[in-house]
Write a structure and sequence with these properties.
elongated, alpha+beta, 1 helix, 2 domains
Length: 120
């Protein structure tokens, strides 16, 4: 083993320990993050954004940004259902996600409108 390898070995070991410790700290910090609220805009016949990655307990606010169109957001899934009813222009409906999985929010009035929720 060369002199250089022997000299660097303690630093490499210390670096590995530091990285391992940082990973544990990051996981702990992630677990303690508060629930988030995300705004989803319903406008021009689509949801913006069209895909969201969320955690259980997060809330989405479905905001009708159209000046004249009414929307009707709903989810029909085996473990979870939601129906916002008629959402007039400017109206906002909130949904707190209590189940993990992938869910599709559709509009009962505009069938091409789809928003996919990925909840962990």
């Amino acid at each position: 083993m060369s002199l250089r390898s022997r000299c660097l070995r303690p630093f490499v070991f210390a670096g590995i320990l530091a990285l391992a410790g940082a990973g544990i700290g990051l996981e702990t910090a992630r677990a303690s993050l508060p629930a988030a609220t995300r705004i989803v805009l319903q406008k021009a016949g689509r949801y913006m954004p069209t895909d969201l990655y969320l955690r259980r307990g997060d809330t989405i606010a479905l905001r009708n940004g159209d000046a004249r169109l009414t929307h009707h957001a709903f989810i029909e899934a085996e473990r979870f259902s939601f129906d916002a009813g008629a959402q007039e222009p400017g109206a906002e409906t909130r949904l707190t996600l209590v189940e993990s999985g992938d869910f599709v929010i559709q509009c009962g009035i505009h069938p091409k409108m789809k928003l996919t929720l990925h909840v962990e």
